[in-house]
Specification:
The chain has about 200 residues and is an alpha+beta fold. Helices cover about 25% and strands about 25% of the residues. It has helices at about 5-20, 20-30, 35-40, 50-55, 95-105, and strands at about 80-85, 105-110, 120, 135-140, 150-155, 160-170, 170-175, 185, 190-200.
Length: about 200
């Protein structure tokens, strides 16, 4: 990984590419804005923030941008945490870790300690653009409470799971695609929520 001035320049350019402010970065890392300025000026970043630095800017730069060598998707573990990548058909099975591990041999890193049923999915299609694009990997937590505005993986009857934003409007509940070319779906008792999306991971190579 780069150090000193070179790392500072890499952080500065990543911020510019992502189109965020230093205050936004500070909020994401639970630090004060002057600390972000210090990162840029000195290139000194606490080791506790390195993993998140890569993850936070993963939508605009690769790890190599920060001087981190290439890695295999199945081997990278930011914090030693990983979850199995499932198919959209297997996503509805609500299995525990041992069963999930038997289903998939592909693992996706996660920044938070996963629950016993946590899994990952690879986004398909463009219905959740621009926030989520095809190929993005999302971390799904079945035990996470469902609240208005959260992103959910859900199925209707026995159909394959789908990915939408959950909208609670009084006594009515809807599934909203972020891409306005797709229709909003009114929920009924035939829908079953498989889990809440708690994180996104993206790679380019």
């Amino acid at each position: 990984m780069y150090t000193g001035k070179k790392l500072g320049e890499a952080i500065k350019s990543a911020i510019e590419l992502k189109g965020v402010r230093k205050a936004d970065v500070a909020r994401a890392f639970s630090i004060k804005p002057p600390s972000v300025t210090s990162w840029i000026q000195t290139g000194r970043v606490d080791k506790a923030h390195i993993d998140k630095l890569v993850s936070y800017f993963a939508d605009v730069v690769t790890p190599e941008h920060f001087g981190i060598g290439s890695f295999e998707t199945n081997e990278i573990l930011f914090n030693g945490y990983k979850v199995p990548l499932l198919s959209w058909i297997d996503a509805v099975k609500q299995s525990d870790n041992d069963t999930l591990a038997a289903i998939s041999n592909i693992w996706v890193p996660t920044l938070r300690k996963p629950g016993v049923q946590t899994f990952a999915l690879e986004v398909k299609g463009d219905s959740m653009e621009p926030e989520f694009t095809a190929g993005d990997r999302i971390i799904v937590e079945p035990q996470q409470p469902v609240v208005h505005g959260c992103f959910v993986v859900i199925r209707e009857n026995n159909a394959e799971a789908m990915f939408k934003q959950y909208i609670n409007d009084g006594s009515y509940h809807y599934l909203k695609p972020l891409n306005n070319r797709y229709p909003i779906i009114k929920m009924s008792e035939h829908f079953q929520i498989c889990g809440v999306v708690v994180e996104k991971f993206k790679i380019y190579i």
